[in-house]
């Protein structure tokens, strides 16, 4: 198994280390061999070679069967959004270059962690939804600029029917393997791109007669995600709405430190925890590695079709939760284990 | 007091009736006279004259010192976002024509209703925030269209420095009268318009040295609103982000049926409940009128500077909650009163 390893910034390297340990252990147990190839990204890459997603990293990713990713972002860039080179540019460049068109973001609950949710138990119990966020189009990649005097700015959101079809197809197919409900999230009462989304999805409905499709405005979904997250199955949406809604969804489960994600690509696919680079914890060996470990599980399953291997990882993660072999964010009044100790235990 | 009355669709007319009763009672008590002038809007206006915001209604609003608004929207338009004439167009046309540039959306809690919140008590207690949403710019009003074959669509988001300054000024001033904290919500790591927002607000900081200003990305705010809503004071943001975040914020208090709002205008200002037209309840005399009554209180205070009158309305609303003179959504196992009965009692 040929895997590119992009540890990135902040806690990225620490949590990636644990996912590597666990992946190697699973590979050994099931008789696979993994060839890991590391590449630089983010602030780490800016420091080393002046660019957040260097060509050398891109080549590593293109040559791999899957990419395991930590996190990027560094506080020294945060209050300077106009800095010439920023870690996030690397992220966007990587998404575009690898054709990572669909960000797959599950939100589910762990029974033992449900009381960590800001929501009441009865609101969150049973939640098991997936948001598919379009990741290489929309206002993230449209034309933007300023007037000559700098006093007027614009951004352009563009979508083509093919872009919508590609994402929606994944959504319909995913819904077929699950609860058979698909919600198309848009703002079709205002935006032309949203009307294109809605028409395109409407035209696809007949090919998936078993899937119940609903169309909801993004503002309504922002509400319902807090009120009744367990009423959703699969949601599909454009890039910017997806950015906002996936983050909103991530905090409702109470298990943000455990949520994995995948980004399906044209060339290769990428697996990453959703928690970000969490710079305050970097280097302290306290970050929760479970989301990254579960991202590796997604990788085994999606990228290599290795379902048993993925399941083995999920089983041991559940066991670590049940036995309290967890980092300080989950330990409560019990003993907190170090990041590396949790990784060793899982492996 | 010259007030334009736009009842609109769904439960609009019923809840507006109660606000009129209460306003008239307050006016009588404090020695004012109110001249109400009604205008058609929304689906009701489409049915009557073919347009959701007819010129005659605009003239009524322009001649008034304030506009009291119910709600617009009708289900028969909902699944047809491409219909030629839609109620929402009236809303957008009205906002633009009246120059309603700032939507003021408070989220606060009523101690007696706190357990209705989907959030746990300790998360929501003490929440008292205001989102200022820019309402006449951005992607709502930019150029949009399709390619000739219909397969590519675009929308444009535009902002000028003056538009940002006008909204931010209101935000700084509001913060000065409250907790002196201002959060500028943007996506400055991606969007040029957001960078203009951030720069403009940054340049204004020196004029309000007492206000602590923070800059947060919209995705982070979508999370923190669910996690720690009580950490915010005043938030300012652009039109589309504001649409999503104000609706998200509205459900966290557990008192959506009570949340009023104001839209500050160049020509006149408008006051409305945030709950929408709620067509399922229309005509049944069961809708909760309190948000509209509290919007009238905002109107007395903001549009006419009548603080005591506003306070009198708030006091009687609190009393209705304490005495259980409430509609079915708040009654629990106790007797539910009709919309009109609540209005009579308050008056
Ligand atoms: C860092 C930023 C550009 C990025 C995005 O908005 O896509 C992040 O928020 C994410 O969701 O991965
Ligand atoms: C109906 C729609 C156009 C409107 C908006 O998006 O502004 C509504 O959602 C609102 O927030 O008032």
TrEMBL record, chains A, B:
Subcellular location: Cytoplasm
InterPro entries named in the record: IsoCit/isopropylmalate_DH_CS, IsoPropMal-DH-like_dom, Isopropylmalate_DH
Residues that hold Mg(2+) according to the record: 219, 243, 247
Pathway: Amino-acid biosynthesis; L-leucine biosynthesis; L-leucine from 3-methyl-2-oxobutanoate: step 3/4
Main location group: cytoplasm
GO MF assignments: 3-isopropylmalate dehydrogenase activity
Claim: Manganese is one of the keywords in the record: yes
Cofactor(s) demanded: Mg(2+); Mn(2+)
Domain Isopropylmalate dehydrogenase-like: 2-346
UniProt-annotated binding residues for substrate: 95, 105, 133, 219
Co-factor note (free text): Binds 1 Mg(2+) or Mn(2+) ion per subunit.
Reactions accelerated catalytically: (2R,3S)-3-isopropylmalate + NAD(+) = 4-methyl-2-oxopentanoate + CO2 + NADH
Residues of the site described as Important for catalysis: 140, 187
Domain of life of the native organism: Bacteria
Keyword annotations of the record: Amino-acid biosynthesis, Branched-chain amino acid biosynthesis, Cytoplasm, Leucine biosynthesis, Magnesium, Manganese, Metal-binding, NAD, Oxidoreductase
Record bears the keyword NAD: yes
Family from the record: Belongs to the isocitrate and isopropylmalate dehydrogenases family. LeuB type 1 subfamily.
Quaternary organization: Homodimer.
Function: Catalyzes the oxidation of 3-carboxy-2-hydroxy-4-methylpentanoate (3-isopropylmalate) to 3-carboxy-4-methyl-2-oxopentanoate. The product decarboxylates to 4-methyl-2 oxopentanoate.
The protein's name: 3-isopropylmalate dehydrogenase
